[in-house]
Amino acid sequence: MSGDPIYTEMIIEYSRNPSNFGKIENPQIHRHDSNPLCGDSIDLYVNTDGTKITEVKFDGKGCAICMACTSVLTEMIQNKNLDEVKNFQKDELLAELGLEHLIKTSPVRIKCALLSLKALKYGIYSYFVEKMNDVKAAGNLKEEAASLY
Amino acid sequence: MQSTTSSLDTQCRSDFPVLERRVRDDKALVYLDNAATTQKPIQVIDAITDYYKNHNSNIHRAVHALAEESTEAFEVTRDKVAKFLNVTNSKEIIFVKGTTEAINLVAYAWGRDNVQKGDIVVTTEYEHHSNIVPWQILTQETGADLKYIDIDENGELMLEQLDEYLATGKVKLVAISHVSNVLGTITDVKEVITKCKNAGAKILIDGAQAVPHMKVDIDNLGCDFYAFSAHKMLGPTGVGVLWARKELLEKMRPFQGGGDMIREVHKYETTYNDLPYKFEAGTPNVADVICFSAAIDYLTKIGMNNVRNHEIELTEYALEKMSKVKGLVIYGPKDSEKQGGVISFNFKDVHPHDVATIVDKNGVAIRSGHHCAQVLMEKLEVAATNRASFYIYTTKQEVDALINSLEEVAKVFKL
Fold this sequence. Notes:
- The complex is a heterodimer.
- By secondary structure, chain A is an alpha+beta fold.
- Chain A is 48% helix and 15% strand.
- Chain A has one domain: Sufe protein. Chain: A.
- In chain B, the strands form five sheets. In chain B, strands 4-10-9-8-7-5-6 form a seven-stranded mixed β-sheet, sandwiched between helices. In chain B, strands 13-14-17-16 form a four-stranded antiparallel β-sheet, covered by helices on one side.
- In chain B, helix 6 packs parallel to helix 7 and helix 12 packs across helix 14 (396-412).
- Chains A and B meet through helix 1 and helix 2 of A and helix 12 of B.
């Protein structure tokens, strides 16, 4: 293998032992998403007290990149303010795992890396629009999610 | 076994310019995704250039010189396809854009008038989506039932289930792959056809993974419909063939309305053209059909039995080496006589996309995913598999390159 590393120790470790893996019963935010062409398929569950993320879990199946990125995302947003999470950018997530190069080198695998972030942004959007009736607070999240990859 | 190449790959390899490519930091390309599409020899590439440089014209209508040349070349390809498949009447060869369109044509133009509520359409667990979804649409629309022939642990069909379905007397059509695109399993089509004929059911064969790899003799098979694609046998994309019996084609309604498929059009009525034009509405893919001729010539010159023997040799070699890679699970018959040059596999606990990415960094192109066969993936209880597939130019050294990369996967994931 050559080029920028993908399968670092950290990614292999996360894919073997994902963080926050499991299900939340009746969560306030639940979003299922999949990459139909590669078969990654995850469910993201989030609880919030209206200002902060209080609990986050995920389950599903996916490749090492998808499992590692989803794990790291759940760690990064735990106990964060919703406003902060709304503005969470893909670069922050990719940098955490040293995968920034995927944006340029692999338009296919970037989808594995960003699937969970897409699910999160859609999930928060739905939460504001459907549960809180607050379209303004939802902002551009839907468009952001759609244009992630 | 020694890592020597059989004569076929050395004989033809230099005809394929793309095989000279370096990829991923100057690695030699090892192309093992031939079940998805094959590479094209220079003879086919030159034929496309020659057509556009010297002959380009629409066909079947104008009387000028270029139109006559193009029409002639188009119809010569039809005759060549017929001869290649041992079909007596070349009017039974319909050009479509691929196997998918061929099957949809049958589902629409034959299915709508011949399948009713309570009837049964039978397919199998190892079909490509193109031989499942058209039948789902048809049976949902008509109220007919769709039934599946299951596969056993060797990835072979449990044909006794076909007997049970046929015994109901309600089966109108059996739609089945000649060779599975995932497992490589070769269907005993002769037996399936005999069973269907005895029960009065029509039989469609998806030959997309068979015609490119072995001698197919349609006259001898005795099926009702047969479909395949040019791009999986050295030809261009966008060309497929549907063969069907003349008696069936004549009774079938048209698939699409438009130019070329008509004899006379009036304000409120139209009479349709003769076969095969009744099913070829609009300007066909003239250039690609014409250069498909060069692909057929190429394969004819090699001889389809030599193609098959080369793939048997490679598959046997690969199966033996792969069985020694730590953590690797191989699906399907695992028997080079019972399968085409296709091997599907997974590492326990490693996602196929991770395998494909590591292998790709070494220049080895394999496919990972569900291979348009999600029904089969459900059966195997996996989301996806990796698949290596061979063709005439594949060498044993390339199989070795795959094995080395697979060993690297085992190392990276500490298997």
